[in-house]
């Protein structure tokens, strides 16, 4: 099998793996945010009943926070199922990559067979989780854009622009700046992976259509021969 096919499949698996990890991370952040708000609202409710001072709390905010927790937990479970499949393929591909570096030229046929089996496994995994994977792509894009915007807005406190040029100011908590930079870099990396994987998914959709058409043609041919 051509080396370009092997390299392309490596990129596909790598970006698929990254999108799966990002989805789990975004779902965990959503669940953590919902849990934080729920705790705050519960504390407010408790203080309302245990103190004479009335503490305001919002039932709507509490409902939204609980919903965010449930959605986050559900999406973690859903993404984890897809992640397990792609992680297994990624690990086997890593073993095959090591073999490519150590085996001699006469073993090309065996390596090609192993790579073909991995591609078939990927297509099967993609077909079984087609709808979920497409939602994962959009979740990754949306989460990346949201984190990028939040990180950019937060970092604006440290920069100011004027006619004389740009200036940089250390804010009240300079330790937050590295975390903002990491957050923006994380968002950019996840957005790039989701865009690349979206392009790969369109190719896989075409592959699945070709396979389905071949299966339909084979089924019709068998029906005609048996009839």
- Give the N-terminus to C-terminus distance in angstroms: 39 Å
- Class by alpha and beta content: mainly alpha
Low-confidence stretches: none
* Helix percent band: over 70%
Number of helices: 5
Q: Write down the secondary-structure element order.
A: HHHHEEH
How would you describe the shape?
Answer: elongated
List the helices and strands and how they pair.
Elements: H1 3-50, H2 59-102, H3 108-128, H4 130-155, E1 159-162, E2 165-168, H5 176-226
Antiparallel strand pairs: 1-2
Keywords: Membrane, Transmembrane, Transmembrane helix
Transmembrane segments: 16-37, 57-77, 136-156, 176-198
Give a quick set of tags describing it.
two-stranded antiparallel ribbon, mainly alpha, 227 residues
In short:
With 227 residues, the protein is mostly helical.
What does this structure look like?
By secondary structure, this protein is mostly helical. It has one domain (3-221). Helices cover 84% and strands 4% of the residues. Strand 1 (159-162) and strand 2 (165-168) form a beta hairpin. The longest helix has 51 residues, at 176-226. The radius of gyration is 25 Å and the shape is elongated.
């Amino acid at each position: 099998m051509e080396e370009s096919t092997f390299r392309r499949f490596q990129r596909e698996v790598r970006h698929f793996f990254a999108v799966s990890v990002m989805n789990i991370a975004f779902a965990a952040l959503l669940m953590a945010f919902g849990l934080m708000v729920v705790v705050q609202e519960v504390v407010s409710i408790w203080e309302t009943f245990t103190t004479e001072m009335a503490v305001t709390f919002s039932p709507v905010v509490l409902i939204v926070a609980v919903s965010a927790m449930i959605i986050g937990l559900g999406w973690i479970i859903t993404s984890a199922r897809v992640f397990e499949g792609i992680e297994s393929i990624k690990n086997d591909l890593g073993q095959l990559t090591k073999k490519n570096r150590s085996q001699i030229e006469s073993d090309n046929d065996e390596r090609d067979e192993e790579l073909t089996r991995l591609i078939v496994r990927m297509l099967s995994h993609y077909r079984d989780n087609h709808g979920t994977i497409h939602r994962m792509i959009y979740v990754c894009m949306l989460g990346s854009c949201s984190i990028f915007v939040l990180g950019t807005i937060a970092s604006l406190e440290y920069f100011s622009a004027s006619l004389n040029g740009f200036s940089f100011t250390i804010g009240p908590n300079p330790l937050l700046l590295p975390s903002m930079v990491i957050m923006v870099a994380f968002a950019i990396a996840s957005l790039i992976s989701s865009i690349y994987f979206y392009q790969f998914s369109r190719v896989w959709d075409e592959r699945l259509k070709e396979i389905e058409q071949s299966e339909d043609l084979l089924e019709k041919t068998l029906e005609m021969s048996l009839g």
